[in-house]
Amino acid sequence: MKKPIGIFDSGVGGLTVFKEIRQKFPYEDIVYFGDTARVPYGPKSPATIIQYSLQNARFLLQQQVKMIVVACNTASSYALEQLQQVIPVPVIGVIEPGAKAAIAKTRNNRIGIIGTYGTVNSGAYQNEIHKLRSEAVVYSHPCPMFVPIVEEGLENHAVAMQLAREYLAKLIIKDIDTLILGCTHYPIMKDTIQKVTENKINLIDSAEVIAASLQEILPEIETEGKGKDLFFVSDNEDNFRRIAERIIGSELTYLQKVILGESWFVN
Questions:
Q1: Model confidence pTM above 0.85
Q2: Residue tagged active-site, from 15, 65, 72, 176
Q3: Which of 5, 13, 64, 198 is the 20 to 30 A CA-CA neighbour of 155?
Q4: Euclidean distance between CA atoms 137 and 101, whole angstroms
C-alpha cells in the first residue's frame, strides 16, 4: 500500500518545506499538519514544545504516514531526539541538513544563523555545526518579526527591507559568508535578504535542504500516479488557506480542522 509522507509545523511556515518536497517528489502522497491553534512555538518552553510535537507526530501516524518531516525549526531543535525514540517511522528535522549544507558552502568558516528565539536559544544549529567542523565560528540572531511580515504578504515591502537591514547588520559585521535561514517562513524573505546582503552571502534554505535530504531516506520514489495532498490544521482554517494558497501558488483541494487529544477527532 502506498503510504504518505507526513509533515508537521507550528503553522504555515512549513508550507515552504511542503512545496519543495512536492516539487521533488510529484508522485508521493503528502499529509501536512499545521498546529495553528498553538502557534508560535518559538517563545514556549522546551517541555511544551516536546509535548506538542509528540501529539502532532501521533496524529500523523494515524494517517498511516511512512515517515515524518519536522518542518518547524523550533520543534526540530528541542523535540527531534524524543520523537526519534518513540515514533515507529523515520523522523527527520531541519537542523542536521541545514548544518551540513552550511559547512559545505562556507569558505571562511564564519556562519550566521537567524531564527525564532526558541531556535536561537536552543543552540541546536551551533552544536550540529561544531560536531561537523569544530573550528567554525557561529553567530546567531533572532528575527521574530519576519514571521508576521511573511504571513501578511509584506516580504518584499519597504518595511521588510528596513527590518532585514537592522536584524542582519549584527551578523554582516561579523564577516559571515554563509547564513542559515533557520525558520521555514524565512525562505519567503530570501529576495529581500539577498538584497540586504548584496548577494555576497550564501543563503541556506531550510526548506530546500530538508527536501533534498529525503532522497537519502526514502526507500524508493513512487513513480505511478499523481500524489495527493491532505492538509489539516488545529484552528483558523480560513486564515491558513489564505496564506497557504499564496505560498504554494495553488488552491488547497482538501483542508480540515482537527482537535488534538485522546480521541483525535475531526471537526
A1: yes
A2: 72
A3: 5
A4: 15
- Domain spans of the chain, in order of start: 5-93+211-257, 95-206
Q: Are 254 and 230 in contact (CB under 8 A)?
A: yes
Set 12, 113, 183, 201: catalytic member: 183
Residue 183 bears catalytic tag: yes
- At 40, which amino acid appears? P
User: How is domain 95-206 classified at the CATH fold level?
Assistant: Rossmann fold (3.40.50)
Give the total residue count for the chain: 267
Q: Is 143 a catalytic residue?
A: no
Specify the residue for cell string 543563503: 203
Q: What is the CATH number of domain 5-93+211-257?
A: 3.40.50.1860
Q: What is the CA radius of gyration of the chain?
A: 18
